[in-house]
């Protein structure tokens, strides 16, 4: 089955040209310095419409689907995964808004003027989101937030933070996911509001923006900060369902990021292998290198076709949680293997910061962890394949 149309090829080529012309030189300069994505580049992403790829035209977005989101993401990730990720701060964080909030916020999100960060994980609640302990308590006509969140990327630069917090303790320990709510914390870009402080996490990659541990200390919120009030089956204590319902798009987005990183490794390795001379000839003449490159290209294409299938299923509104986990699992595991092989082809030079390859390698390793670890993906897949036998 061919998923590509002339329009999709044009979208893909435009993203490829933009990524290689505008993003890659900035990534090569700033990533080694651990510098932040410049505002000028964010403005360019907004002009391209990349913060609103899957936001409907009614709200000023491009009104495209998960498939186009995947195409653009792969191209951006091939240059710098952090840039392929920041576009999700517009495309991926509108869930739970009321009709009034959608009219107010979505056009701004599509223009890159209202970007968010997600505060989901905690020191003891990562893969196990049902273990959230950050508390939101009623305080007059509003709410008060207390607790700690971690792994919140872009918390400082965002215009809002979407926070998961517990509003009620579960009566049944087997239903820990109940009693979790989602809140909208509006903030000034570049600052934290009173009652919220943070510490940057010392990461080994994913540079271009900071990832934070956040501390909520009696942060006051208005009553309308509670999200999901107009969602069917949503509202107070029901945010767990809304959070997991968007994971298919999030995971196919991560698969595309992983593919872009692997492609960067392959393309750089192809170029290097033809330039590097050993024993009187380019190392690309040696079968050991040629077979490595052939295997790398095959793995990338296999991951891409699986990801295309899942994106098409999402756009066709068919359930594909198992397949989305498969795509995320396969692509992320593949990306680490392929970028490692690309580093091997570069030899000692691959283990320096003189080539962008080490960035692809470091960032590829992260794709096996965020948006659900590889182990979580295997659990999801196996649970769909096999019934659990009661002891």
Describe the protein's architecture and organization.
This protein is α+β, with helices and mostly antiparallel strands and 391 residues long. Helices cover 47% and strands 14% of the residues. It has 12 helices and 9 strands. The chain has helices at residues 6-30, 39-48, 66-79, 81-86, 88-91, 99-110, 239-245, 247-275, 287-315, 321-346, 357-367, 374-385, and strands spanning 116-119, 135-139, 142-153, 160-166, 180-186, 196-200, 211-222, 277-278, 281-282. The strands form 3 sheets. The chain has a 4-stranded antiparallel β-sheet, with no helix packed on it. The chain has a 3-stranded mixed β-sheet with strand order 1-4-5, with no helix packed on it. Strands 8-9 form a two-stranded antiparallel sheet. Helix 1 (6-30) runs parallel beside helix 3. The longest helix has 29 residues, at 247-275. The mean pLDDT is 94.
């Amino acid at each position: 089955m061919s998923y590509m149309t002339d329009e999709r090829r044009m979208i893909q080529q435009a993203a490829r040209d933009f990524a290689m012309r505008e993003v890659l030189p900035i990534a090569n300069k700033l990533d080694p310095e651990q510098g932040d994505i410049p505002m000028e580049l964010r403005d360019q992403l907004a002009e391209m419409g990349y913060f609103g790829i899957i936001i409907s035209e009614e709200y000023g977005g491009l009104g495209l689907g998960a498939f186009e989101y995947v195409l653009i993401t792969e191209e951006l990730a091939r240059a710098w995964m952090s840039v392929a990720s920041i576009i999700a701060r517009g495309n991926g964080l509108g869930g739970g808004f009321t009709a009034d909030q959608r009219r107010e916020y979505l056009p701004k999100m599509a223009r890159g003027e209202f970007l968010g960060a997600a505060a989901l994980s905690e020191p003891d609640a990562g893969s196990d989101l049902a273990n959230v302990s950050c508390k939101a308590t009623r305080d007059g006509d509003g709410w008060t937030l207390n607790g700690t969140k971690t792994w919140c990327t872009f918390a400082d630069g965002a215009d809002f933070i979407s926070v998961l917090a517990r509003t009620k303790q579960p009566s049944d320990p087997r239903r820990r996911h109940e009693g979790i709510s989602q809140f909208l914390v509006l903030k000034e870009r570049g600052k934290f509001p009173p009652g919220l402080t943070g510490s940057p996490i010392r990461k080994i990659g994913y540079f271009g923006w900071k990832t934070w541990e956040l501390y909520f200390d009696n942060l006051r919120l208005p009553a309308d900060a509670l999200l999901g009030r107009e969602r069917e089956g949503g509202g107070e204590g029901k945010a767990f369902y809304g959070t997991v319902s968007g994971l298919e798009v999030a995971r196919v987005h991560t698969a595309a990021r992983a593919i872009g990183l692997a492609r960067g490794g392959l393309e750089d390795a192809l170029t290097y292998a033809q330039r590097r001379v050993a024993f009187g000839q380019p190392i690309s003449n040696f079968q050991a290198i040629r077979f490595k490159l052939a295997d790398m290209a095959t793995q990338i294409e296999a991951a891409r076709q699986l990801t295309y299938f899942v994106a098409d299923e999402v756009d066709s509104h068919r359930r594909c949680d198992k397949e989305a986990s498969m795509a995320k699992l396969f692509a992320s595991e593949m990306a680490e293997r392929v970028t490692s092989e690309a580093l091997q082809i570069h030899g000692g030079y691959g283990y320096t910061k003189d080539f962008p390859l080490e960035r692809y390698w470091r960032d590829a390793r992260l794709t096996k962890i965020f948006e659900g670890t590889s182990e979580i993906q295997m659990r999801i897949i196996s649970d769909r394949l096999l019934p659990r036998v009661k002891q």
